[in-house]
């Protein structure tokens, strides 16, 4: 399997997974997002000085909903390309393992490193939450959390392979992986906290965060599943000439 072929497989898997995640987010999370936007509008109206009209939306909700699906699909495609590249570097030399299992394992690692570990420190917030003046600071801290999460998961993966090559038992391998991931989480926890006020009801906040986790599960799970299925399909022997 060549690298360009793996990249094409990753792109297709990522686009489909992104589309699935976008449609899921539109169906499941849209009511929560709409409620948060209405609260944001009411809050802005209450704080409008001198009875001036509130700022009008640049895009309608319909356009925003369509843009959500498009953005998620494009993001999934980009993620799929990176997924295919990492798959090529980590697994292409080991032809003994099945693509299905390899892809699911890599997708699980990506979910933990790219999303879950940073999420534990900086959970997702509904639209309108956060001071615009601190957006650069919050973005930099979030990106640093992703870097630490990816490094932690990558190091844990490498350590497991090394211990397996040395013939160490699986409990030792798994405990070493867990220790490295916990160390990465501790490093993420040392990053600056988000001190911006959250002015939405608690139930709405947690519902939004749970749906964010579910959407990411759809994205990463779909990416691993479609990539693995395409890999299994590629391994099927070609039909012999003249076969019925």
UniProtKB/TrEMBL annotation:
Keywords: Membrane, Transmembrane, Transmembrane helix. InterPro entries: CbtA_put. It comes from the Bacteria. The chain crosses the membrane at residues 66-91, 103-120, 140-159, 171-190, 210-230. Coiled coil: none annotated. The keyword DNA-binding does not apply. This is Cobalt transporter. It comes from Carbonactinospora thermoautotrophica.
